[in-house]
Amino acid sequence: MEIRPTTDQDLDVFVDTLHAAFGRFPETPAEGGGGVWWSALEMERNLLAVAADGRPVGTAGAYSFELTLPGEILVPASGVTAVGVLPSHRRQGVLSAMMRHQLSELRARGEFLSVLLASEALIYRRFGYGPATYTQRLTVPRHQGALTLPRARGTADGPATGSDTGTVEVLRRAECGGILEEVYDRYRRAQPGALSRPHRWWASGAGQPPISPAPRYVAVHRDADGVPDGYASYSVGEANTLTVDETIAADDAVFTALAGFVLGHDLVAEVVFKHFPPQHPLRWQLADFRAGQVGGDTDWLWVRLLDVPRALTARGWFTDGELVLDVDDPFLGEHGRYLLTVRDGKADCVPTGREPDLSLDVSDLGSIYLGGTAPSTLVRAGHIRAHRPGVATVADALFRAERSPHCLHWF
User: Fold this and answer.
1) What is the mean pLDDT of residues 307-325?
2) Is residue 217 among the annotated active site residues?
3) pLDDT score at 388
4) Is pLDDT above 60 for 315?
5) Which of 124, 184, 331, 369 is labelled catalytic?
6) Residue 393, Cβ density class (10 Å: 0-12 exposed, 13-18 middle, ≥19 buried)
7) Domain residue ranges in the chain
8) Contact, 293 vs 139, CB < 8 A?
């Protein structure tokens, strides 16, 4: 078997092989080739596994993204995608060989982390990936969608939520592509766990709504000066259900204004927020707390560290302290022990011979890296070993982020 990089001439073979791996057929591209997910593929970053007889049997790809780390720090991240093996060649080492080849290439590019969305939760942990952000669905019956007035007059972090002075305008998706791109880019730069959406995604309509050209209405929020600072992409479907693809907002007040707009839509039975951030305050803003029904609680972005010291010194930190981390990477056959020292928001991470505070798999380090999974949770689950009492609490404080990480982008 040979694993080789692809070129633009391999696009059809790559797409056909991947679809065959999942027993599906490619959709018909729109005129001009846009509107399909593969129109954003970076063919120079993809791999084909080819059998001895020359037949392609597996695929793996990667996108070039920026990932926002805690502290509003932007770093390059490879978005692993389009991974599949023909049913006739599974359990023969094809997937492992492709993943090992890909990780080696990412390191050769000088990258220190990669991310993916896992089609199956059992597959990718063995390659060193761990779930790091989560998402859910919030369903609110329209007749129970009234929002309460804010009781607080303001906080040290700003004015009380609900003191919005902006406006909401309804546009069709085709009318506001530039607005969506601009507003999303401002949002993702401040949101831990968010990925960039390169211009080629918007230009080609690759991905899911609102990137794709699928018919959607968009509620665009503008601030008091008329500058767009949020949007909600939505459609009304069967049973008069209004489904919000995603809500992007500069702050909680803008999110509340957009939520109030869709919750007040006429002739709608219920509103479904499809990609809702866990622990978002909207449920507390409903007059009837029980009106918001949470479902579809699942993992989203998985993180894999390729260079532990570089990754840990790249992100921002919000508590001083130190930990000795004993990190095992069985897939790459590597092991390291590191002293992590944090002072004034900056970290130093160096090899050490000191006794460890925590022993963990590289996939568990990926899970806690963005601050969305508490180390103590993985200690209680039996994944991370704490070597002394109280160290899990120290790790929780150290790894927390300024806000919960969340990723909306599908790739």
Assistant:
1) 98
2) no
3) 96
4) yes
5) 124
6) middle
7) 2-111, 135-296, 308-399
8) yes
- Looking at the DSSP bridge assignments, the partners of residue 329 are 334
pLDDT at 170 over 80: yes
What is the band of 409 on the pLDDT scale with cuts at 50, 70, 90?
A: very high
Query: What residues are paired with 299 via a beta bridge?
Result: 134
Strand (E) or helix (H) holding 296 = strand 293-299
Specify binding-site residues for acetyl-CoA: 83-85, 91-96, 119-120
Contact present, 209 and 216 (Cβ < 8 Å): yes
Does the pLDDT of residue 162 top 60, yes or no? Answer: no
- Clarify whether 124 is annotated catalytic: yes
Secondary-structure class of domain 135-296 per CATH: alpha beta
Structure tokens at 365: 């380090």
Tell me: the pLDDT tens digits for 198-228? 999 999 999 999 999 899 999 999 999 999 9
CATH fold of 2-111: Aminopeptidase (3.40.630)
Bridge partners (DSSP) of residue 134 are 299
Residue with tokens 């007889």: 53
Tell me the pLDDT tens digit for each residue of 248-288. Answer: 999 999 999 999 999 999 999 999 999 999 999 999 999 99
Residues 271 and 139: beta-carbon distance below 8 Å: yes
Q: Which fold has domain 308-399?
A: Nonspecific Lipid-transfer Protein; Chain A (3.30.1050)
Same CATH fold assignment for domains 2-111 and 135-296: yes
In what side-by-side order are the strands of the sheet with 56-69?
2-5, 47-50, 56-69, 73-85, 113-117, 301-305, 130-131
Name the catalytic one among 234, 276, 399, 411.
Answer: 411
Query: Closest Cα to residue 405, out of 9, 131, 177, 1?
Result: 131
Residue with tokens 């579809």: 296
pLDDT of amino acid 94: 97
Q: Where do the H-state alpha helices sit in 36-176?
A: 94-108
Confidence of residue 163 (pLDDT cuts 50, 70, 90): low
* CB count in 10 Å sphere of residue 177: 16
